[in-house]
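Hi! If you just cloned this repository, the fastest way to understand the data is to look at a raw example. We've pasted two of them here, unedited. The first protein comes first, obviously.
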Amino acid sequence: MQVHAVFNRDGGTFRTMDITAFALKAKDIFEQHGHAFQSDIVAGKDIVKALETAAARDRDGVLMAGGGDGTISAAAALAWKTGVPLAVLPAGTMNLFARSLKIPLELNAALESLASGVITAADISTANDRAFVHQFSIGFQPRMIKLRNTLEYNSQWGKRLASMRAFARVMGRPPRFAVRLTVDGVPDERTVSAISVSNNPYGRGLMPIADRLDQGKLGLYIAERISLSSLTKLAATILMGSWRNNNDVDEILAREVGLHFPHLHHRKKATIDGELIPLERDVVIKVHAGALKVLVPAEPASG
C-alpha cells in the first residue's frame, strides 16, 4: 500500500509537538507493516492545495490527512470526488469523524491501527455541492461558532473554554427562524431555533456522533422555538448524554432533506463539519451510501 500523508502543522495536537519527528515515526510504523509512506507538512492555509496535489499524484494509493475536523472534512470531500481511499489521523480538538470510524485518538496508536487496517466503504453526505462527513447545522451552532471565533485561544482547552463562553452568550438570545422542509418528499413547515443534519444518525453515547457510517441515512434533528429555560435544559441533557429524552428535539431519519428559508438574511451562516459557510436560501441534503473509501482499524479499538 502506498500512503501519502498531509499533516496540518496548525492542527490542535500538532502545534504542541515536534511534527517532523512525528512524520518520521509515521514512516517507520508504516514501513514496518510493509507499506510505502511519504508525508508533507504544511500550514493550515495551504492544506487544501497540498491534499489536491497528493491525491492527484497517488491515485492508486491512500490519502492520509492529519489535522482537525476541518482538515479531515476537506480531505474526505476530495477523496470522495477522486475515488482515493482516505486515512484519518485525529490531530484536532474533537476528532468526530475519527471517533465514528473507531480510530484511536492517541496518535501513535492511530498510526499502528491504520498501518494494520483495512479499506472499507463509508457514507458521505452533501449539502448542495458541499460534502460533509459529520454534520450540517443552522441556527444555534453557527451563531455560537461565529462568537467563538472572535475570542482568543491558543490550545485545545482554550478552544473548549471559548466554546463554553460563546455558548453562554448565545443562550441569552436563542435564534428563531422559519423553515420549509421536505423530508423524503413529504413537506412540512416550522419555526425553529436550530436544525442539524448528520451523516448517519447519532448514536446513544455522550458525544453526538454516529456509531456507524454505513446505514445510508441522514439524521435530522430539529429544535423548535427554544426558550432560555428549555435551552438550559437542552444544554444539560447534551452534557449528560440524555438529549434523546428531551422533548424539545425531534429526530427524523431520512435519505434526502430539502430546506427552504423564506425570510433568509443575506449574512446568515451555516456550518459544515464545524466550519462556517454562507447559508443559501435553498439547501438539498443527500446521503451517498458507501461512496467514500476509508482506511479503518482491522478491529474496533477504544479511544
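Ok, and the second one:
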Amino acid sequence: MNKPVGLFSAILITFLLAGCGVHSTVSPTVEPPSPSIQAEPLDVHKAKPMPEMSQHPQEDADIPRTYHGPVPILMYHSIHSDPKNTLMVSPDTFEAEMQHLKDTGYHAITFKDLEDWKEGRPLPSKPIIITFDDGYKDNYTVAFPVLKRLGLKATIFVVSGFVGGKNNLSWDEIKEMQQSGVIEIGAHTVSHLDLTKLSEKQKWEEIHGSKVAIEEQIGCPVIAFAYPAGRYDDATVKETEKAGFEFAVTTRNGLATPQQGLLTLHRIRVPGNESAEAFAKEFP
C-alpha cells in the first residue's frame, strides 16, 4: 500500500526540481534605494571549495569545453533609459550589447557552470557571465525577452525583501524566468544593507535569510551571492561561506579567477554612458 505514495512523492520532487538545471519568511516589501556603487575594501579572501551539485543542462552537451582561463562577469542593474544614471543601461544599448556577444561567439554561462571551473575542468570557449543586481522589474520586461530570443543565460541577484515592490520583480516573474532555463537566481541579501556595519547575527539574517527566502519560493538551491554595493570584510565572507554559497561577487573591476577566492570574485561594470560600439571593442 505504501509503494504508490512513495512513487508519487518521487515524481513530485522530480517535478519541483526540474527547473533547477540552470545552474523562512520573506521580510516586508520595501522600495530599493536608487542604484549606486560604492568603493569596497581591497582585501582578497579565499573560500574553500564546495561539493559539486549536478550535471550541466542537456542543451549544453554539444558545446566543446576547452577553456581554462579567467571569466568576465558583467554587472548590470536596471535596463532603462536615463542618461543621468550611469547604472541604467538603455534597452537599445543592452540589446545591441547582447547581440554582439551572440554574434562574436561568446557562450553565456551561469554560476552553475562555474562548478566545473572551480574543480579545474574546462569551460566553453569565450565564456561570459551576465549578471543583474537588485531585481528590477525591467530585468523581466526588457532584458529577459532579449536574452531568451538570443539564447543567452544570465543571473539575477535578487534582494528578497524588495520582491513585489513597485519597480521590482514579483515572485511569479522570478519563478517564470528561473523555470525557463535562461535565468539563474542568486541572492543579494534581504534589505540591501552595508554588511560590514552589521553584527554577526545581523549579517547571518541578511545573507542566510535571503538564501532561504528565495529557495522557498523557487524550489531550487541558490549558490551565488552578491555583496550589496560590493562591500565585504572577513566576517562577511565567513558568514557567506557558512550560509552555503559556493560563489560570491564583488564590484572590484576585472576578470574573475579562482585565485581571487570563490567568494570574492571580480566583475566588470557595464556603465549606462558607454556606447554599444565601445562595449564591442572591450569584448571583441
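That's it. A detail worth noticing about the second one: Residues 1-18, 22-59 have pLDDT under 50 and may be disordered.
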